[in-house]
């Protein structure tokens, strides 16, 4: 393989992309991490829409997965080295705390402005003028002060301190989608997008979808262009080569912002199998050195690797997608072999991990490796039932078998 550019555009084929993925995403056993923070920093962001995804994604990448739950909870709720907050595409992610300012400036500010404008428009119009911007500002300040006093609180607890949070207004009055909204539900979401509150410890176990809220730690305000360049630089280091389409999809930015950030970091264009153009960091043009051992992985629904790129043919064959994705494009639990998705997994009636290969081309070696990973996952789950928030055809079928 030609490992250096010789005046022509460097070509990175699908095979090399899979090797890069295995190393950068800490999926091969020889590159697994020791702590939750190491995993998060390696991946830039862990999907947090489904709370269990964070734990399962970390566990799949730890050298010793037995203490995954305690390690993640320590990082999130004691040391606060990880933070769950709104980020790209108006989606909840878990980031290393030091990236909060970068994420907020690069992706949150524009979304936050639209979210607040939408709340004011809907609230004022849906309350016949009874609820005004001035009224909301007063309630908002009171709620944040109460949250500061409590440290962490549910919305229900906050309404005890600030009863006006329970006020209702009509969203979409006279439309087919007309619905009653509470000020609390909309306001907390806006404050989250604005980076002023973050998700705190859940009610119940680590699989719970009911969260407390906490005041966000302070962070500096960064220039937008600077923050976008930094986020793209970090992400290319993990997911390069990536196309403009991948970058636009993952960040949620306009294509002009993507191009400006690519130029700012000095990204290098490379050719891809199929004729596309991808981009890598200037220090990652050369091919990875050394051989990588065969590896298997069981990754959760919405895993950051499975959801890392918009163009997925090089690691997820199109014929497998109907079984592995739901109707909205959310991927379920997947089985990987050698850098490609080859099947899916779920849990049986007793909590045991069950799996199926949809692509058996890896033969007995792949089956043995996947079985070992399934045993590893079953061991640390210890019978805990994890139901993906977005269920897919294969996951549901395996769960009922």
Automatic annotation (TrEMBL):
Superkingdom of source: Bacteria
Record-linked InterPro entries: AlkZ-like
MF (Gene Ontology): DNA binding
Pfam (any one): AlkZ-like
Keywords: DNA-binding
Protein name (Swiss-Prot/TrEMBL): Winged helix DNA-binding domain-containing protein
Annotated organism of origin: Streptomyces endophyticus
């Amino acid at each position: 393989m030609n490992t250096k550019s010789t005046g022509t555009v460097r070509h990175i084929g699908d095979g090399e992309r899979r090797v890069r993925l295995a190393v950068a995403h800490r999926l091969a056993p020889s590159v697994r991490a020791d702590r939750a923070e190491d995993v998060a920093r390696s991946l830039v962001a862990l999907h947090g829409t489904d709370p269990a995804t964070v734990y399962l994604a970390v566990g799949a990448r730890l050298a010793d997965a037995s203490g995954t739950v305690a390690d993640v909870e320590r990082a999130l709720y004691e040391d606060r080295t990880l933070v769950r907050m709104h980020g790209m595409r108006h989606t909840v992610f878990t980031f290393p705390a030091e990236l909060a300012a970068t994420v907020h400036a690069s992706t949150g500010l524009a979304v936050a402005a639209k979210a607040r404008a939408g709340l004011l428009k809907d609230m004022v119009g849906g309350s016949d003028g009874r609820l005004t911007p001035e009224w909301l500002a007063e309630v908002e300040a009171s709620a944040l002060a109460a949250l500061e006093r409590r440290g962490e609180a549910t919305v229900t607890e906050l309404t005890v301190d600030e009863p006006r949070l329970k006020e209702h207004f009509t969203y979409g009055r006279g439309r087919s989608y007309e619905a009653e909204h509470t000020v609390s539900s909309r306001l907390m979401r806006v404050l989250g997008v604005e980076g002023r509150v973050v998700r705190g410890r859940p009610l119940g176990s680590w699989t719970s979808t009911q969260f407390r809220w906490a005041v966000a730690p302070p962070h500096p305000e960064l220039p937008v262009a600077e923050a976008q360049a930094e986020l793209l630089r970090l992400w290319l280091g993990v997911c390069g080569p990536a196309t403009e389409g991948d970058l636009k999809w993952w960040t949620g930015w306009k294509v002009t912002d993507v191009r400006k950030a690519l130029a700012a970091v000095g990204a290098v264009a490379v050719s891809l199998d199929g004729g596309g153009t991808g981009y890598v960091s200037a220090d990652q043009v050369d091919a990875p050195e050394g051989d990588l051992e065969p590896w298997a992985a069981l990754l959760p629904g919405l895993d950051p690797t499975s959801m890392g790129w918009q163009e997925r043919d090089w690691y997820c064959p199109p014929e497998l997608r109907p079984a592995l994705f739901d109707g909205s494009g959310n991927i379920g639990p997947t089985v990987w072999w050698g850098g490609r998705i080859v099947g899916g997994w779920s849990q049986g009636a007793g909590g045991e991990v069950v799996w199926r290969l949809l692509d058996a081309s890896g033969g007995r070696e792949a089956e043995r490796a996947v079985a070992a990973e399934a045993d590893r996952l079953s061991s640390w789950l210890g019978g805990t039932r994890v139901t993906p928030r977005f269920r897919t055809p294969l996951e549901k079928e395996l769960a009922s078998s």
